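Worked example 3 (structure in, sequence out).
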């Protein structure tokens, strides 16, 4: 399993996922201020003069030095994350699809002034997308099964990693504003 380590800024807000190597580098450089969660990996290093091998224990969550950005968070809009937000369900017919059979539907079509933004896009199967065409759901007589939302930072980090560990999930889900899990 490709374990990732959750990086927080010094204010305790999650900012990204780190590889084991990246987390180890931050620990060695003493840029980790505090950590949380279980040890997810042990990395063995060199031996000291007494013949004791160094070992670096990587926790699942690390809070690091660095700038804190207070600007409003904008999750990048990408179909991988969009389909995961909608749990691979077409929000018009309610059926589950493989990602390759889903498309991004603009609820208010772009040609009608709709934005390409999280709050105006939903996962849609091709059939529903074709049927809806260049119309609003009201005009097409197609009801949306859920209101599209922009993920907050906690939700986005969950959406962008398929191997979220239990303690990372506990940390992230405490600040979810929407139902993301089954
Ligand atoms: Zn559909």
């Amino acid at each position: 399993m490709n374990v990732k380590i959750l990086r927080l800024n010094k204010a305790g807000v999650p900012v990204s996922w780190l590889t084991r190597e990246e987390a180890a580098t931050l620990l060695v450089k003493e840029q980790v201020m505090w950590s949380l969660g279980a040890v997810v990996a042990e990395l063995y290093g060199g031996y000291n003069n007494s013949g004791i091998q160094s070992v670096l224990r990587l926790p699942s969550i690390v809070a690091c030095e660095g700038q804190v950005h207070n600007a409003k968070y904008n999750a990048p809009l990408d179909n991988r994350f969009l389909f995961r937000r909608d749990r691979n369900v077409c929000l018009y017919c309610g059926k589950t699809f493989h990602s390759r059979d889903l498309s991004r539907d603009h609820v208010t079509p772009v040609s009608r002034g709709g934005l390409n933004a999280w709050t105006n896009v939903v996962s849609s199967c091709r059939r529903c997308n074709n049927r809806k065409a260049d119309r609003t759901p009201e005009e097409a007589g197609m009801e949306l099964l859920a209101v599209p939302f922009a993920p907050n930072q906690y939700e986005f980090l969950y959406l962008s990693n398929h191997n979220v560990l239990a303690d990372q999930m506990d940390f992230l889900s405490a600040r979810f504003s929407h139902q993301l899990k089954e």
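Notes: Helices lie at 20-28, 79-85, 126-132, 137-140, 153-159, 166-173. The longest helix spans residues 20-28.
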